């Protein structure tokens, strides 16, 4: 068995490349928002630290509870609903007039 043998399975390959695309989008999103905070709004390191913490809190507090809940429901429906919610909050990020609105959108992200 080689490192690339799981990619021969079509369902795994689709999931892997979907996750790869999603992770690339997360990286671009993080970089763009950090640039917005640091250079466009000219806020200091405290705002960047709060940005990182605001992104991490839902993963720490909400994700463990949701992962148990999702195992009891239809995962495909949940994934589509989460993608729609993420699209709405991403649109909200575009129209954020200040850092506090941005943080509230990020927390619900």
Automatic annotation (TrEMBL):
Subcellular location: Cell membrane
NADP listed as a keyword: no
Keyword Membrane belongs to the record: yes
Membrane topology: Multi-pass membrane protein
Membrane-spanning parts: 20-41, 47-70, 77-103
Record keywords, A-Z: Cell membrane, Membrane, Transmembrane, Transmembrane helix
Predominant place of localization: membrane
Family matches, as PANTHER family: INTEGRAL MEMBRANE EFFLUX PROTEIN-RELATED, MAJOR FACILITATOR SUPERFAMILY ASSOCIATED DOMAIN-CONTAINING PROTEIN
Protein name, UniProt field: MFS transporter
Source organism per UniProt: Bacillus carboniphilus
């Amino acid at each position: 068995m080689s490192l690339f043998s799981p990619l021969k399975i079509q369902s795994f390959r689709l999931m892997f490349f979907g996750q790869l695309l999603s992770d690339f989008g997360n990286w671009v999103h993080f970089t763009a928002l950090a640039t917005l905070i640091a250079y466009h709004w000219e806020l200091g390191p405290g705002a960047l630290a709060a940005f990182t913490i605001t992104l991490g809190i839902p993963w720490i507090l909400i994700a463990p509870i949701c992962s148990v809940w999702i195992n009891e429901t239809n995962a495909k429906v949940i994934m589509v609903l989460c993608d729609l919610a993420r699209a709405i909050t991403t649109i909200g990020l575009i129209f954020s007039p200040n850092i506090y609105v941005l943080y509230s959108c990020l927390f619900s992200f």
